[in-house]
Write a structure and sequence with these properties.
The protein is mostly helical. It contains nine helices and no strands. α2 packs antiparallel against α4, α3 packs antiparallel against α5 and α7 runs antiparallel to α8.
């Protein structure tokens, strides 16, 4: 959030989209905790928290595909936003086999298939971020942003895959492995501070 306010205009949107994704993930965690405390079987199928975890990838995908060089067209931004809404609708239908707000019986996706889709989403986002990073040859705020995003997404994808495997093997029993979900966000915080630390020349000029 701090980078979203203090960075250049061209990268401000990128940080805002990443913050939006993290907020969606946090809300998903809150719903997941509430669902785990309920009386039904947590391994029965997809829940609303899983839908939010899928939505987490939408702002990230927008950050990867958003142009940072040249003038942004508001028309294309609105089209991207419309595609995100349509994708969210398709994700909901795929996860629950029903349209939202129709009050029909849901048929949630099985947990085993759900976790496979999670893994595919994680590695797909990491791969897309890597391709976007390789497209930059000059150092700058945009390249450093994608360095942070790429590092975070690869660590998230690998640890999430390990976490999902353990979840299936242990029938979603809590354990030390739950800390695997925290590590990517710790790396993201450290990388954002280290890579965007003001240079000594900048600090000295500001003191003058």
């Amino acid at each position: 959030l701090w980078h979203g306010r203090s960075s250049a205009v061209r990268t401000r949107l990128l940080w805002t989209l990443l913050c939006t994704a993290l907020v969606l993930w946090f809300i998903g965690i809150v719903f997941a905790a509430q669902e785990d405390l309920s009386l039904y079987n947590p391994m029965a199928g997809a829940d609303f928290s899983d839908f939010l975890f899928f939505l987490f990838g939408m702002p990230v995908l927008l950050a990867i595909s958003t142009p940072t060089e040249g003038e942004r067209s508001s028309t294309f931004l609105w089209l991207d936003a419309l595609l995100v809404v349509m994708t969210a609708l398709l994700i909901y239908v795929a996860a629950f086999s029903v349209l939202p707000f129709t009050h029909h019986a849901e048929h949630p996706l099985s947990v085993s298939r759900l976790l496979v889709v999670y893994n595919l989403e994680g590695f797909a986002l990491a791969g897309a971020a890597t391709l976007r990073l390789l497209a930059y040859t000059n150092d700058g705020e945009e390249r450093r942003f994608y360095q942070v995003l790429c590092s975070y997404l690869w660590i998230y994808a690998v640890l999430a895959a390990v976490y999902n495997h353990i979840t299936i093997a242990t029938n979603e029993k809590t354990g030390v492995y739950d800390l695997l979900t925290v590590l990517p966000f710790a790396v993201l915080s450290v990388a954002a501070v280290v890579l965007f630390r003001p240079s000594e020349d900048t600090v000295q000029s500001s003191r003058r």
